[in-house]
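Chain and conformation:
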Amino acid sequence: MLRSAGEASRRLVGVDVARCVALLGMVAVHVLPRLGDDGGQTLVRTVTSGRSAALFAVLAGVGLALSAGRWRWRGRLALVLRAVGIGAVGLALGTLDSGVAVILAYYAALFALVQPFLGLGRRTLLALAAVWALVLPLVSFAVRDSLPERDVDNPELDRLSEPGSLLAELTLTGYYPALPWLAYLLLGLGVGRLALRSTAVAAAVAAAGAGLALLAHGASSLLLGPLGGAREIGATFGLDPGPELDTVLSQSQFGNVPTDTAWWLAVDAPHTTTPLDLLATMGTALLVLGVALLVAPRLGRLLAPLAAAGSMPLTLYTAHVALLGWTDTEDPTRYYLVQVAAALVFATLWRRWVGRGPLESVLALATRPVAGRGRT
């Protein structure tokens, strides 16, 4: 969500379209019902929960890769200042009663953490992303019990008076823990340095993503089923294998799994930040990106509203969270469709007649004195 509208000649419409897909998915998670009439989780919730936020994070890395070839000190400082701006917006949104786990403060932490890796090559980044996804959840699992207990509310401005607790939440204990989530940005950085305008490369990205997602889901099923992981987790709840335990294992854990048994690391449910959750959502992010890159050049103007919305995600996400904090509805489907339509119309008109999104413009203006030509 960091990258603002760049030069038209350098934009990849498919990346903007994929970013819009992530935005629409997150809005769906926030607005549409979680459970259907039969008491089970809705298909929309199953498809979007966890995957939309992960797609945003991967695309943030892609955006960083596309925005610069070499990162000099001015570009790095501009990135830090942008992160501070995004973090401030996130902490301000955290004060609203929106019912949303606001992601922006965590994104700010991600952009600070990614600094040492900006100059690495694509092969190193892709390998590091895989290792990071496998190892950092284990580190988190080992150390979280010794960290300050997480606040159940969103990080907000008054938490700045408790820097240690806020730092622990943003990096390890919170809803979108930035240290393990850095795997997403590393993946995006590596993928963003591929020849993404190539049809063959886009197809390979989509295929690799599908394969990775299937492999991660299969590994989770094997560990939880035949290898006995579900039974061991169920024992901590006093539950035998069955529908009730299946529900426990498939539901969101709000950022991190419990630490009462290491078998929790075998689940791949949304927002569990286990190795298999990270790998599976990295895979679905690559799949969406690859498909978007394939279809965008062929559908052109039909996807223009999506691309416009995807070029200003910070503006639209902020407006969405603010709207949820100030309004309510008894018709979630209509509420969702109205928000989506308004976002697409606004973005299309703004992009055509003004250009860069409003909040994206503010960030660009704030960093212009230091950015110079540092990112070249």
In short: The longest helix spans residues 199-224. The chain has one domain: 8-216+289-371.
